[in-house]
Automatic annotation (TrEMBL):
Species in which this protein is naturally found: Devosia yakushimensis
Key words of the record: DNA-binding
Protein name: TetR family transcriptional regulator
Pfam family, one: TetR_N
Highest classification ranks of the organism: Bacteria, Pseudomonadati, Pseudomonadota, Alphaproteobacteria, Hyphomicrobiales
InterPro entries: Homeodomain-like_sf, HTH-type_TetR-like_transc_reg, HTH_TetR, Tet_transcr_reg_TetR-rel_C_sf
Transmembrane regions listed in the UniProt entry: none
Residue stretches making up the HTH tetR-type domain: 6-66
DNA-binding stretch(es), residue numbering of this chain: 29-48
SUPFAM superfamilies: Homeodomain-like, Tetracyclin repressor-like, C-terminal domain
Length: 188
């Protein structure tokens, strides 16, 4: 982490994202983050107007790094199968910049259950992710309805993987998820 006198906006966003993943949205508190970052609340207000601004930045980071960047990373791979494998491998990497991805995914969905505006944001990202999977499965040659159902099943399996990863369940097995991807890509 950066020295307290040189903290960046991104330092605050990452600290807030980590706090979200560890304890949910209620744990994203300016004072607690300032203590964790060994700085004053004044540093926070240099970068953000208020806590909602920080939470918006956390959501934007999640949307970008957890969806847009993952899709872009796979875009230049030659086949839909290669792209799907790469996206899955990136999605199951549970540590991103030192942050527990499974914890963040779960916390965001917990927050969405309490806040209709956040629920809508999560639904939009979920729809984008499923659409991407559907398009790639369609490029393999699956008919649209089948591609959609398999994309939804694969995405739900990934969300289950995240949930099981949070408490160290043996069912959070990357190899099993990869096998499920192979089944999703198989001809009907």
């Amino acid at each position: 982490m950066a020295k307290a006198d040189s903290l960046t906006r991104m330092d605050w966003i990452l600290a807030a994202t980590a706090a979200l993943g560890q304890g949910g949205v209620d744990s994203v508190r300016v004072e607690a983050l300032a203590r964790a970052l060994k700085t004053s609340k004044g540093s926070f207000y240099w970068h953000f107007k208020d806590r909602p601004g920080l939470l918006e930045a956390v959501l934007a980071l999640w949307e970008t790094e957890g969806t847009s960047d993952v899709i872009a990373m796979a875009a230049n791979l030659a086949t839909p199968e290669e792209r799907l494998v790469a996206v899955l491998e990136e999605a199951v990497r549970l540590d991103l910049r030192g942050i527990d991805v499974a914890g963040v995914e779960g916390a965001l969905r917990g927050w969405a259950a309490q806040d209709p505006a956040i629920a809508e944001r999560i639904r939009i990202v979920d729809a984008r992710r499923v659409s991407y999977l559907t398009e790639e499965l369609g490029r393999i040659g699956q008919e649209p309805g089948m591609a959609r159902r398999r994309a939804e099943a694969l995405y739900l399996a990934l969300l289950g993987f995240y949930g099981a990863s949070r408490y160290g369940s043996a069912t959070a097995d990357v190899a099993a998820l990869r096998d499920f991807l192979d089944l999703a890509m198989a001809p009907p």
